[in-house]
Specification:
about 170 residues; mainly alpha; Arc Repressor Mutant, subunit A; 2 domains; 8 helices; about 75% helix; about 0% strand; rod-shaped
Amino acid sequence: MTAAGPYPTFDAFYRAQHDRMFHFFRRKVGRDEAPDLVQEAFTCVLRSGAFDRLENPNGYLTRTARNLVINRARTWHRKGCMLYPLDEARDAPLLPDQEWKIEARELRAAYRRALLALPRRTRRIFLMHRLKGMSYRAIAKSLELSEKGVEYHIMRALARCRKAITFQR
């Protein structure tokens, strides 16, 4: 390519005008779409075959960029689409906190019912292990049971809790 206006080559023209075009498109269509439209604008100028004959390549590029924005708007209008940039802070999906709180409350109630339905000794052993963090050995020693007996009561309580959760869902 020969000189067009003040630019010796198309490469020099591209390097000099890229940032300006990016900022133009960013203002018009948003940060996500801008890089693609910048490339499209420069491609249109290059494919036109008129670059080496242009006296004002900056003006030609600007007019091409404006036409791309107009064509894009027409296409969106024809399709009935609206394009709004996503604002991550405002538009991010919200977690279903309220639903989770309700499920957690129902789950706690199911556990409570299951524990209250246990025989008194099994419930006591289970709570000593789960709430107080006592080992099987410590529970066995304090209640004068074997460790296998403690294990039996814990397994029985866990089975009831599992069953209560299965019915809950």
